[in-house]
Amino acid sequence: MNKENEFFPKDFEFEKLVKKAKKRSMIKVVLISLAISLIVLTSLYFIGDKVMQIKMEKETSLDSTWNGIMGANIEEQGTTYNYSLTSATAKTKLVKKVGGVPIPWGEREKVFTSLGTSRLITIDGPSGSGSIEDERIPLYYQGERVVEFFHPQVNYKQIFDDRTLLNIIDDNTVVEMAYSFNDGYSIEEVNQVFKDQLAWYWVDTFSKDEIKDDNKFNEDENFPRDSTVNGFQAYGFQYNKHPKANPASNFISILEMVKEDGGNYQSDAEKIINSITNQGKIKLEPQNLKIIGVVVTGKPSDLIKFSDESMIRGATLGATTDLY
Hints:
alpha+beta
């Protein structure tokens, strides 16, 4: 048998060449696979990054636009972006301007991923502490009082009037005060009374069903606290003293724009437009906006002149800070 096997003698040099070729082929396959994987991963990264950028630009712009009409006397101060390999964080600083003095009003932070998803990180809001026997539990945020509003068509067990506090607050302090009206007024009527100290208009965006629900809630004796509207929930627009400025038209433009392509805010915009226009029976125009409250700011001596104003139904103190 051994002799038969040796009839075709082994070619060791050939075997070496075959093994070497196989090794080179394997290395070549591995390198090509690694190169293809690298190209695919790089392509996926850049595609994901582009998707994230588009998502982030659209959502932050939309958030900024919507928050321009939601929140009493709250303004954005700027947004910063922090990037990681597969995500980015957008952090927007908010402020209140009280008598010309900016007061930090928290941050809004949102995370975006290369998968095209986003989520809100900071979801803090106003809070109050007290017992059920307390006559009133004021709301606080960032260590400051939060304004509350009373709708003119909603009945309340108690409507607060903080204008008396102006007599005891030092005049080196600037304060924010929210006035709720006894009816809906035009922008011109409001300007005639409050123009010098005016900071923000509260627009009536309530539907008939919402008014009915709030009245029903406030009539229930099982709930000792009335359903008021805190400053974070109110819709309206900033006062602008520039003669060519038209913030009411801007308010309407935002609603119309968001109604067409407003993402998570689209249904809210539709509801507000339907409420303002009475289901389309009147036009969505500045002269048809009903102003049911305002935010005014200034020194106590500046605001005390409104103590006997008949159109004011309720008044709540907001943020305060030193003038200097």
